[in-house]
Amino acid sequence: MINTNKKYVADFLNELSQAKIDEQIMSVLKTYLDGNIELKASSPFKPMQGCQEWISGLWGPLLKSFPDLQIQPYILLGGEYKETSCVSTTGNIIGTFSQDWLEIPKTDQPMWIRYAAHFVIENGKISKAWFFFDMLDVLRQAGFNFFPNRAIECVPPGPMTGDGVSLQDSDHEESKKSLELTANMLDGLGSYDGKSLESMGQERFWHEEKMMWYGPSGIGTTRGLKGFQKYHQVPFITAFPDRGITEKTDATQFAQFADGNYSCDFGFPAMYGTHLGDGWLGLKASGIKCYPRVVDFWRREGNKLVENWVFIDMIDMLGQLGIDVFGKLKSLRNG
C-alpha cells in the first residue's frame, strides 16, 4: 500500500525540482506547504516563515546559482515520533554552479550539494521543515579546504542496496527491529567510561568489516568499525569527552523513527559537548560548550547496522567555537 506522507513529500520534491521561476515555485509551495510554514536550515541560513521567505531566503538564491538543479533523494523515510507525522530524506541537489552562492565563487562545473531534510506533516500539509546542507563540502568542491582531513573526502553514495526510496508502507516488525537496534547503539555510545572504546560495545550493533560511515566534510568517510573509530570517534570523544544527547523537551526539535530496515535520528540541536581536547579538525581546545545540530540515517542488514549517513551543521558548530568559516572565505577572496 502506498504511504501517503512519503508520496506527498516525494511529489513535493519532484515538483520543486522542476519549478524554475518564482511563480512556479510559489505555486508548488502553496500546494504542499502550510501558509505559515516554519523553515529552519543549517548555517548560514536564518529561520524563515511562510512561502515567500522560503523563496527569498533559500530557494530563489539557490536556483539562481544552480539554474539546472535537480533534487535527487536516495533515502526517504516516513514514520511517527510522539504522535507527530514525519518524513525525512537525504540525497544530492545536483546542478551547474554558474553564479556565486552565499559568497562561494562559482565554478561553472557540476556541483553535488549533499542535503538532508526533515518534514512535519499536519492536516495534510507540510507545517515545519528543516534542511541541512553540507556547506564545507560545497566549499571543498569549489576549491576551499580550511580544515585538515583525517578520512577520505568524497560525495557519499546512496545505499548499496538501492532501496532507500520506497513509497510503500513498510513491515511494522522490521521497522521496530531497526528502531530498537539504533536506540541500543546510541545507548551504547552513551555508556563510554572515558577510558576504553570497548565500554561502548559497538561491536554488538555494527557489521565490523562492512560498516560504511559517511560523515560530513571536514571529517569524511570511513570503512569498517576500526576505520570509524580511528578517523572519527577517537578524535571526537577526545575533543568532546562529556558529549551527550540533548534533553528531549518540547523546546527541542527532535525526532527518531524507523521505516523498514532504515532509521533516522534528527535534532536541531541533537547533542552537546564541551571542547576540552585538541586535534579535532586540527583545532586547539577552546573550553566552549556547544550544541551541534545533527541528523543520521542508518541502514540495517539482519541484526547489524551497515551504513550510516551523517550530517552535522559544521558551519554552526564551528561558529559556536568562535570560527567564522565564511569570514575565512571572504578574507581569502579579498586577498
List keywords for this structure.
Nuclear Transport Factor 2, Chain: A; 6-stranded mixed sheet; 2 domains; 15 strands; about 325 residues
Task: Report on the architecture of this protein.
The longest helix is centred in the middle third of the chain and has 18 residues, at 172-189. The protein has 335 residues and is an alpha+beta fold. Helix 1 packs antiparallel against helix 2 and helix 2 (22-32) crosses helix 3 (51-65). It has 8 helices and 15 strands. It folds into 2 domains: 4-141, Nuclear Transport Factor 2, Chain: A (Roll); 172-333, Nuclear Transport Factor 2, Chain: A, CATH 3.10.450. The protein has a 6-stranded mixed beta sheet. The chain has a 6-stranded mixed beta sheet with strand order 8-7-15-14-11-10. Strands 9-12-13 form a 3-stranded antiparallel beta sheet, with no helix packed on it.
Computed Rg = 19 Å
Integer count of domains: 2
By DSSP (H or I, 4+ residues per run), the number of helices equals 8
What is the level-2 CATH architecture name of the largest domain? Roll
Strand order of the largest sheet: 2-1-6-5-4-3
Helix content: 25-40%
CATH topology of the largest domain: Nuclear Transport Factor 2, Chain: A
Structural class of the helices, strands and pairings? alpha+beta
Sheet having the most strands: 6 strands, mixed
Mean pLDDT: 95
The arrangement of helices and strands along the chain is HHEEHEEEEHHEEHEEEEEEEHH
